[in-house]
Amino acid sequence: MGWVRVDWQASLDLTGRVLLYVSVPLSFPLSIALLYGESVRPFVVAIAVTLALGWAFRALPGDPGNLGPREAFLAVAAIWLLVALIGAIPFAVSGTGTLDRPINALFEAMSGLTTTGATVLVDFSLHDRSVLMWRQLIQWLGGLGILVLATAILSELGVGGAQLMDTETQTKNVNKLTPRISETARLIWKLYLGLTALAVGVYYALHLGGLAPKMGLYNAVAHAFTSVATAGFSPEPASVGAFNPIVQWAVVPFMIAGSTSFVLMYFAINGEPMRLVKNEEFHFYLGSIGVAAAVVAAAIYIDPSVGFDVEATVRHAVFNVTSMVTTTGYASADFVLWSAAAKHVLFLCMFIGGMVGSTTCSVKSLRWLVALKAFRRDLLTSVHPEVIRPVWLSGRPVEEETIRDIYAYLLLSVLIFAFFTVFIVVDSARIGTNVSEFEAMGAAASTFLNIGPAFGDAGPYGTYNDFSMTTKTAMIFLMWVGRIEIIPVLVLFTVSFWRS
Amino acid sequence: MKLRVEWRTTTALVGTVLKYIAIAMVVPLAVSVVYMEDIWVFGLSIAVTGAVGLGLERLESDSEIGPAEALLLVAISWFAVALVGTIPYLLAGYGTSSTLAHPINALFESMSGFTTTGATVMGEISTDRHSHAIMLWRQLTQWLGGMGIIVLMVAILPELAVNGAQLMKTEAPGPDLQKLTPRIAETARVLWLVYFGFTALLAMLLYGLHLGGFAPNMTAYNAIAHAFSTLPTGGFSPESDSIAAFSATVQWVIIPFMVVAGTNFALFWHLLDGDIRTLLEDVEFRAYAGAIAVLTAILAVLLYGGAAPPQELGGTTAGNAENAFRQAAFQIGSLLNSTGFATSDFAQWSPAAQTLLLFAMFIGGSAGSTGGGIKVIRWLVVIKSVRRELFRTARPSAVKPIRLGGYVIDEDVVRGIMAFTLLYFVLFGVATVFFVVDSLRVGYELSTLEAAGAAIATLGNIGPGFGSLGPFGSYAAFPPETKLVMVFLMWIGRLEIVPVLAVFTGAFWKR
């Protein structure tokens, strides 16, 4: 292996450390299983495997070496893949319902870890409550993981313009990532935990106040896990639609908070709220939700087949648009039954995404905002080529190289989405399932952009179980690629990455 | 308020453009005299267009046109030309049940013509229903729009020679303009000469086939009409069955001319000099020809395997090698570079075959051709810059310029190309959703494939889409608001978005 110039031992060392940590959250569903008297085997096996694998990686001979940019990419890709594999073990070992097939178990675990929320489950009542809670918890872990990744690693390495994120220190210390990761993680994870606790408190208080009969402690914890992580799994087959209107309204702010920059929220809590309030990306993000919700509300209001009153129209429009833009993937109603107009607007919402440095997925508001600003600038310079004018974002000029990175990232996303849509159409035609173009587009966007529900059979109350084995495998791959911002995975497939 | 832009000079030049359009209307007038139909329609059209043109010309001021005026001139001219192009449709349709009697439909048809789109709102396409002159006017608008009205003006008007390069750059497809000769007016003349030459050659070949007995219905009228819409990658046909109305030989003859229309015309100028290597070694031409070859091969295999039902027009392709190959080559040659002719109702093909065609629609012709769409050269740059992005991620310190055919591409140009391509997709996506929403408002159910097809077919200046908008279908059923948006998309699509949108920004006008 003389020609490999990546310190892969360093990447595996970090991966091993993470795998050892994964055993801690796995003991939570284990205790739930003990509490409800369900089988503990799924979790015992998973804990044993993750400890053994983690220990093995850490025990590799030789000096682990330094974690530089390339080692970080390798570690990120490996961690997300391996944790999904470990996460699939409880599903596969339990083997109930559609989880009897290993590929389905892996789909569910990858969908969970990447905070997608697309499910292959059909009958929720077949599964143990501990297994369903693991499904919620793995999303919460995925949300935490992405926060650390987004705030500490990707912004530092400048993946697809992520360096624009308003982090506390703009250090260019890319050679020593490890201290930076632990520093940021310490800063962020308390906020994440606090928001989750607040969500549990609010949901459970509604229950205790008699306003939400179904929102028991189990459901309060389960939904708090997946709303703050903008993830979207729910132990209820009808998602948040299973609860009364007041719960649906209560979930909306937590989805929005989960998609707001955690760094800016940290500042807001620590006496600098203006940094958040005056942030242009924040305006763009909230504005997109507002505009899209208004259009959807109009579309379902004029649709005679839906028949909501005014409050319900506003609520369902706001809830489902917020769910799509923040990439959560909850649903308050089966929007598959809505008119094509409403569905197409929801589809467009999938591409926006929340703010960078949050648990959100998709391509993110920041990139669209910079691209639009850069394009407006280009219109001016096309008339007056002599004018040199930088693109400004929240009072700071954006480097031209960053703009180019963002363009490349957006184009790559659009192209992968387009090719994946074609793949789903062709592959579904091959096995003879009837998937319309719109359903294929929805499923491609929903998995690659980590949203969750799509349209047709894969709608919010439906399942991805009916897609072919090859399509599901491709979806697993693209959920993985999409979640860690494409480039860390794709770069592993280039020769120049491995060679000096 | 003092405007930053010298609009008077610009408007006067738009008047000059319209004056020449009035002169071009002499061609359908002559046809109407030959067939003794609608003579007054074109007589009156010429009078109105000429009067408007001469009237605007009186605004002439002494100031010269700068970059902003050039941009404005190109954007406004194209819209003005589309407006006066409606006059014959409106006059001929007045008092009849023709769909073109409605002003928005007439504007749609006219814009579709000049921008070489080829999407139609005509109900019944035939020379029985409409006069030969009107149908030929429809073809002629495409021919005029193909190589570019402004390029033509630069070629013939000495006063435009000063800023001609800027004007032609604004109008010509593709990110870059090759100067063939030191003087820009000379370059414009060369381009039009090559264009004219190919058109004449095709018209003669088609009529020759007719005389030789290979094409019974390819009369002199049809030969000229189809030459007029092949070279500009237009796609209109006076026959409702498009090219499916003609024999297999005619279809084979038209294929290479469609391919030529999507090629950079500057390369043919070198070819006339006996320099064949410039063409063969051109990176864009090789990619363009390669894309056509690969997609044709895949589609031919699909069609041979039964991806198309037996049709009255397209015939049977399953198991028929010649027909499968011909249908594949024709449709790819037509849709990839935005022509829009059809020899088979591909709206009835299998999902895989239709998806392949939709894919081809996003490629586009070459820079410096008459083709629409994103253009091959942009794709080459986009692919290279995405690869460079991955390379730079692995090695942040490395500096790696983007090279194309041995030349380093300027970073500003690379950024411009990426911005264009991205904006193209954004416009496509938003337009698709808009079409669905707006059609549903008036109770017209549109499938996503139909809406997406309509969006790319208008923005990319292709013409036919899928479903009810297929090659033998019509855009007439859309609500007027959607049609106006389509007119806008065709307009910005032909001028490659930036010039038109720039005119709509406040910074363009204010000092």
Strand order of the largest sheet of chain B: 1-2
Helix residue percentage of chain A: 55-70%
Beta-strand portion of chain B reads under 5%
How is the main sheet of chain A built? Answer: 2 strands, antiparallel
Task: Count helical runs of chain A.
Answer: 19
Query: What is the tally of beta strands of chain A?
Result: 2
Q: What is the H/E order of chain B?
A: HHHHHHHHHHHHHHHHHEEHHHHH
Distance between the termini of chain B: 9 Å
SS-based structural class of chain B?
mainly alpha
What's the average pLDDT of chain B? Answer: 89
Q: Radius of gyration of chain A, Cα only, in angstroms?
A: 22 Å
The ordered string of helix (H) and strand (E) elements of chain A is HHHHHHHHHHHHHHEEHHHHH
Oligomer: heterodimer
| Total of helices of chain B | 22
How much β-strand is present in the residues of chain A?
under 5%
Number of strands of chain B: 2
Shape, per Cα inertia axes of chain A: globular
The termini of chain A sit apart by 12 Å
Q: Which radius of gyration of chain B do the C-alpha atoms yield?
A: 22 Å
> What value does the average pLDDT of chain A take?
89
Please identify the structural class of chain A as seen in this structure. Answer: mainly alpha
Key structural traits:
heterodimer, A: 500 residues, mainly alpha, 2 strands, B: 511 residues, two-stranded antiparallel sheet, globular
What would you say about this model in short?
Chain A is mostly helical and 500 residues long. Helices cover 64% and strands 1% of the residues of chain A. Chain A is built from 19 helices and two strands.
Could you please describe the fold and organization of this structure?
- The complex is a heterodimer of chains A (500) and B (511).
- Chain A has helices at residues 8-36, 41-58, 69-94, 102-113, 129-157, 177-208, 217-228, 245-258, 262-269, 274-277, 280-301, 310-325, 340-349, 365-383, 400-431, 437-448, 469-483, 487-490, 495-498; strands at residues 391-393, 396-398.
- Chain A starts with 7 loop residues before the first helix and ends with a helix.
- Chain A is an all-alpha fold.
- In chain A, a hairpin with a 2-residue loop joins strand 1 and strand 2.
- Residues 168-175 of chain A have low confidence and may be disordered.
- Chain B contains 22 helices and two strands.
- Chain B has a two-stranded antiparallel ribbon.
- In chain B, helix 1 packs antiparallel against helix 3, helix 14 packs antiparallel against helix 16 (351-361) and helix 19 packs across helix 20.
- Chain B is globular, with a radius of gyration of 22 Å.
- The mean pLDDT of chain B is 89.
- The chains are: A mainly alpha (500), B mainly alpha (511).
- At the A-B interface, helix 3, helix 13, helix 14, helix 15 and helix 16 of A face helix 4, helix 16, helix 17, helix 18 and helix 19 of B.
